[in-house]
Amino acid sequence: MNSLSDEIKVIVFDVDGTIMDSIGRIVECMQAAACACGVAEPSVQAVRNIIGITLHHAVEVLFPEQNPEKIDQITDEYRRLYNLWEIERPTSLFPGAMKTLQTLKQRGYRLAIATGKSQRGLARLYGDQELCSLFSASVTGDQVKSKPHPMMLQKLMNQLEIKPSEAVMVGDSVLDLQMAGNCDVRSIGITWGVHSREQLQQETPVAVIDDLSQLLEIF
To answer: Among residues 72, 79, 54, 59, which one has the least CA distance to residue 149?
Structure first.
């Protein structure tokens, strides 16, 4: 791990399920949106599997039998519910996430975000100015092609003027790790999100951790 910590300049983070404890909210909203639109609710695991994909594409994956109009209806209802419930009961970061991010920045690493959230969704997260100040760059799902396409990381590397060997992607989903692999960027999986250690290890990350604070042992 010493060679990794010496070479890496930028640590890129997924948001949902990686730094933010939002998986339950996403599942809850997607199932409620389906019910409101008169279609069968997807299973918890089915929703977990699409976390990280851009919203409209995620709805298409979850409801492949529905026509475009119904897909748009479900997407709009999900967005409405998510925004409403975030106002009523804001989703929090995982315990210790803020401290870990602050410490990594203090150690000289630049931090970035690669998320399937929209710019509006990221702006809500960035409403916490202390959190916002930690990140040097971000790319959202409505700006580029959806994970696992490498465009999100490519855009970040262009913004930050770094090579793939100088970045590492941290995520809880195989989509995050596949995106990194598609961009020749190394990755670290975290098990407290949507996919298990075994699933993450299949994507050959340099490490799989159980808590974000373990990054402080690597970097």
So the answer is: 54
